[in-house]
Fold this sequence. Notes:
Elements: E1 2-9, H1 17-28, E2 40-43, E3 50-55, H2 57-64, E4 71-72, E5 78-82, H3 83-88, H4 97-112
Parallel strand pairs: 1-2, 1-3, 3-5
Antiparallel strand pairs: 4-5
GO molecular function: metallopeptidase activity
InterPro entries: DUF3152 (IPR022603), MetalloPept_cat_dom_sf (IPR024079)
Protein name: DUF3152 domain-containing protein
Amino acid sequence: xxxxxxVRVDPDVKVxxxxxxxxxxxxxxxxxxxxGKGYTFTEVKQNPKVTIRLSTPETIHRICKxxxxxxxxxxxxxxxxxxxxxxxxxxKSKLDLENYRxxxxxxxxxxxxxxxxxxxxxxxxxAPIMMQQTLGIGQCKPNTQVL
Length: 147
């Protein structure tokens, strides 16, 4: 299934649109992500199925009610990635910045694809991509793969 998406960066976010769009394309094409489950992703300028937006915590708080996280509509068309997390990561996830970005793109795209949150399956198991790793991983191991 091909997902047509467009990319936006809010005016008050100091990340170049081209840089953000390139990084998104790399993360979405990762064979350990949704691409490995048969999804393809195509950036388009018109008629997207999904809009992926890099937004400030204030904007996300207004839209999603929690400005500390990123969010997406379950089975919907809009994804909001938290610019502060994009630039600094989430220490509780135990992922370095690049891996955190991979995780959050896959996690939020999972919501767009209709997947809800998951829990840690057990001690020393990889954290599911749909677990809110931003908030911590408990007894799980950090993970960026869609298993």
